[in-house]
Amino acid sequence: MKISFVIPLHNEADNAAAMLDRVSQFAASQHWHFEIIPVNDRSSDKTPQILNRYAKKYAYIHPVHRQGGADLGNTIGLALTDGTKATTGDVIIWTMGDMSDDTQTYKDIVDKIQDGYDMVFGSRYMPGGSRGNLDAVKAFLSSNGTLLARILFGVPVHDITNAFRGFRKDVFKKIKLTSTSFDISPEFAIRAHLKGYRLSEVPTVYTNRDRGVSKFKLWHMTQAYLKVYWRLIRERFAS
Questions:
Q1: Distance between CA 17 and CA 143 in Å, rounded?
Q2: CA-CA distance, 58 to 53, in Å (whole number)?
Q3: In what order do the strands lie in the sheet with 2-9?
Q4: Residue 38 class from Cβ within 10 Å (0-12 exposed, 13-18 middle, 19+ buried)?
Q5: Is the dihedral of CA 12, 17, 23, 26 positive or negative?
Q6: Class for domain 2-238, per CATH?
Q7: Residues 6+ apart with CB under 8 A from 175
Q8: β-pairing verdict for 165-168 and 91-94
């Protein structure tokens, strides 16, 4: 089994090198067959140069460079889909370039997938998980965003608003995603659940970034989640 790490990076020059080292060291410690697909998402800092330097040094690092202007807004959804399309692994792990995700959770996710699940989430809100030092307002909105999905769609997990997850490549191939921003996280989870894929979760601890600037805009995120839920509800009634 080959594992592909997809890492979106928008102006993450302060974190890019450390993030690549971190993922590389953990994956190597597990003796995994792996690759890393860092996605330079329209960065205007030194992120592209850092990724290219690492790609020359390590054969398992294959950067994807996305072009475009700042006027496009947040395009993390496109970065994740473009990165996933470039993978060659059997299992994909989405993990954020701001170093907020716990590396130990990578192993827990892979173990669950090997147990037969199709998509496994790193959950801050299940027993054993923690939002860590995430802002209380953001935690309230993200946890209740998942609660709403549980009520509306019967999603059987506790944290789908966070992109941190692992899944079988075949799941991605069979689901058409339309979201371009943060809303890709709940959209992918809900569509996978409605198609009958087996979803599970493992506890994780979130760590807020200590370097660089957050791209997380509370109001834009909330609007995006509500829009994708409404779109999926309309699709269900139309079918």
A1: 31
A2: 9
A3: 64-66, 33-41, 2-9, 91-94, 165-168, 119-123, 199-203
A4: buried
A5: negative
A6: alpha beta
A7: 188, 191, 192, 195
A8: antiparallel
What's the one-letter identity of residue 70? A
Q: Given the structure tokens 């769609």, which residue do they identify?
A: 153
List, run by run, the mean pLDDT of 10-residue segments along the chain (239 residues): 97 96 98 98 96 98 86 81 98 96 97 98 94 76 85 95 96 95 94 97 84 57 83 81
If you search the block for the tokens 């990724």, which residue do you land on? 51
Q: How far apart are CA 137 and CA 81, in angstroms?
A: 28
Q: Which two tokens stand for residue 105?
A: 């959770």
The CA R_g of the chain, rounded to the nearest whole Å, is: 17
What stretch of H or E contains 133? none
The residue assigned the tokens 């970065």 is 79
Q: Are 63 and 39 in contact (CB under 8 A)?
A: yes
Tokens 């995430």 belong to residue = 134
Q: Is the overall model pTM greater than 0.90, yes or no?
A: yes
User: Which residue do the tokens 């130990």 mark?
Assistant: 104
Tokens of 13: 């020059």
The DSSP code for 72 is: G
Give me the residue spans of the domains in the chain: 2-238
Alpha helices in 67-135 (DSSP H): 76-85, 104-114
Dist CA 29 CA 206 (whole Å): 22
Rounded CA-CA distance 146/132 in Å is 18
Structure confidence at residue 72 (pLDDT): 54
